Amino acid sequence: MPSKTADIVVSDLPSNKGERLSERVYENLFHAIVTGMIAAGAKLPSENELARQFEVSRPVLREALDKLRDDGLISSVRGSGNYVLNALGSRVDDVPSDEADRDALQRIGDLLAGIELRMIVEPQAAYLAAKRRGPSDIESMRAALDRFDQAMKQNAILHHHDYAFHEAIATATCNARIVQTLKSLEYDVTRSVNLMRFLVQFQPFIRNEAVRDEHEEIFRHIEAGAATKAKRAMRNHIEHARIRMMSNRPGF
């Protein structure tokens, strides 16, 4: 196996109340692996280094690594360390089984259903946020956008910063049910392993800059109190997210 150790940048990751630390570490490493931030065959940093970067204990880190092994995303070599497996847990010559394909297709359907629900909920949330936002809401949105931008510049993990922006919008609606609904749809990476294994065959192209620009447009309209424009911008953002996820054309 290659001996080059992967560079992992962890930038000011927020910790959600009630979220287990091991889940936070697992989800961020999972996201970094399936999006290609950590290349196949790369060696992960040592457990001590990862624990330091994520600011967790080694037992917490090991729990997260155990889940990644169970998913087939990493393997351990005694005396050497942990390595990211080819693609997403499979060998080059592996052929997905019919059962795996069916499972992946079902998960794609589940994810598309979630996006459909977001298309109903989040544009209206943006509309209400533009009507009801206070100074603290604007500060929370701006902080999430700044963390996303900084993480992108560092080639760091973006998942939590992306969600934090959407959560800040939901919070600005002053409607707890909207916040609860959004939390139930938080990209659900812990159930997405087989889905990502399926999609990786088509090398989906992730455009972080496009996401950032779309977020900025939504924020401008909410900050200005332009509710109808904020609603339209959010709807466009979610539709573009669906297209980016499903498109198999790098030049799209």
Automatic annotation (TrEMBL):
Residues 19-87 form the HTH gntR-type domain. The keyword Oxidoreductase does not apply. It comes from the Bacteria. Keywords: DNA-binding, Transcription, Transcription regulation. InterPro entries: GntR_C (IPR011711), TF_FadR/GntR_C (IPR008920), Tscrpt_reg_HTH_GntR (IPR000524), WH-like_DNA-bd_sf (IPR036388), WH_DNA-bd_sf (IPR036390). GO terms for molecular function: DNA binding; DNA-binding transcription factor activity. This is FadR family transcriptional regulator. It comes from Georhizobium profundi.
